[in-house]
Amino acid sequence: MRRRDWEQPVRVLAVEDSPEDAALVRSVLVGGAGLRFELTVRDRLQAGLDHLEREAVDIVLLDFSLPDSKGLDTFRRLNAEHPEVPIIVLTSLEDDAVAVQAVAEGAQDYLPKRYLDGRLLTRSIRYALERHRSEEALRESEERYALAIRGANDGLWDWNLSSGTLYLSPRWKMMLGYGIYEVGERPDDWFRKVHPDDVDELRSALQAHFEGDDEHFEHEHRMITRGGEIRWMLTRGVAVRNEDGKVIRMAGSLTDVTARKSAEQQLVYDAFHDGLTGLANRALFIDRLGVVLAARRRQPHFRFAVLFLDLDRFKNINDSLGHTTGDKLLQDIARRIERTLRPGDTIARLGGDEFAILLSHVDDLGDAVRVAERIQEIISTSVVISPHEVYVTASIGIALSSEETRGPEDILRDADIAMYRAKAAGRSRYEVFDSEMHRHAVRLLALETELRRAIEREDFVMHYQPIVALATGRIVGFEGLVRWNHPERGLIAPSHFIGLAEETGLIVPLCWYTLRECCGQASRWQAMFPQEPPLFISVNVSGKLFMQPDAVERLVGILDVSELPPGSLRLEVTENVVVDHGDEVMAKLTRLRALGVQLSIDDFGTGYSSLSYLQRFQYDSLKIDRSFVSTMGLTRDSRNIVKTILNLADDLGIGVVAEGVETEEQAIRLRQMECPLGQGFWFARPLNHDAATELIAAPPRWYGGPLGPPGVAQ
After folding, report:
1. Residue 173, CA atoms < 13 Å, CB-side half-sphere
2. Separation of alpha carbons 529 and 81, rounded Å
3. Which of 192, 444, 486, 514 lies at a C-alpha separation of 20 to 30 Å from 293?
4. How far is residue 132's CA from residue 267's CA, in Å, rounded to a whole number?
5. How confident is the model at residue 299 (pLDDT cuts 50, 70, 90)?
């Protein structure tokens, strides 16, 4: 079989009924490195089978759970009807055991959907196609072996049980490295060359054949060559019986199947190991967790621990130095951790930059903590990947076995939850799981479900906080602030759900909703209240929005529909947006700025890279963080920081908004410092659109007392 031409697109059939999962497959295939794909999606097994009857495909991505088929039957039916097409199974977390069985029955690979990414899927497809080609070649080879037997190309043997003599062909002897006269003519001369661990099994198989249990004899076993090499051999034969049914003679062939056995062993190894690091994969880790859980049930005092490790800011390394460097770093980290563990412990790579560690026996929590501290210490040492010196840290979650531990997935989940708590607490640390973490995770899951439904129904409203020219008191713009209009809890402030939306990716559709509403409202205000310059609208957006391929085009479309001039939209981004998402985000922001959209740094001064990113990228304005404004009257340092920011902005020719202005004293002090714009409760709390409209129409009353008009969002 010819090697595949990788220049041609790979024809992929995805049998997947979930639109979300199908979209995920499409997105990761688009981002797959080094291959081009032609993807066809069918949502039923029968539809997939019908497609295979009409069209040729190179590989099938198969979901286990389909409307017309479930579990292993899905794979078995497709594989039975189209054995010529390699299959990769896509699983949810609970399908791992079934997926492993599918691999045992002929699937090329299985991939959990949770850890799916372009590099992993591309590598799996490439490997599956090459392996399928190899299996086809192996089948052809075995057919040739069958022909070779007829031509005495394999080793032949003939055992006369009546006389006790054994004929071994020259080819038989040559396969083991012996000359024609170097092997005797007795059965023991054969058995002495069989591996000692396999002799008894071979004799038992022969005896079963003699007794008539098997019509044909066939047995695989190891043999030792003259040079001491171990080779896998397939011995076939058939017995000749006399009229009494007694075996008087037996003849057959000897075939070297070392290559096939090695391939099978490699397949088994690959099914349970990570291809990049050689570590155990999730399936093997779960299996070993099951073993220690069983041991604990037998011995209640037996204790073990699971560590869930995730590298901090690993994406930045991939984005800045490339995936090759990232892969080498993962390999180095894997070796470092391996060296810290005991022989009975297990380390697995679960995917991406996530690792799991099983400490098979611990006396108490302190043992697990000491291992976590040691791992953090060895990881934090710099790694030289020429020409780069890379530093990395890790967040670790620890879960200790307990009476409440139910299954392998449960304790791995607990360690995962603790790891996320370590991330939230500042990274580069460990956290120990407790039951409250699980309850919190359950509450977050419920909240995420509600949030998804709210986004689908657009159960949100916008409020607007005025941005005021401090010199004149005139409203020059608004910041749009989203509120969740919960059917039971009423208006929910963004602080209670934005973090969750960011973590789950729901922030992207939420940002698009906010931009549509804000641009439309700003356009209506400009028509109602014409002024120079026109009222602008300021919107805080997530960096994940600009990871979307069509982000710029979609935003331009919103401006066109709302008829809002690009210069009247001000996008607020935090310093970390550029730090975390890198050049891709900066490129899109540059395009938007070229179109006239205004860009502003939010919470300026709180990040670690403020000045460096002002040098790298041209912003139109910045917002002085409220922490400096609120303490101006208390500390000289805060006043000096504000003055420094104002002077810096003036030198760079960019605008400034001071946020968090809550007192008349702060407003006056900022005006005396010649700060151009201010925003905060002193002027108004966030207002619904009716109250904000009334505020625009009313004369400014900022310096005579606080303003609290109707419609204020509390």
Report:
1. 14
2. 70
3. 444
4. 11
5. confident
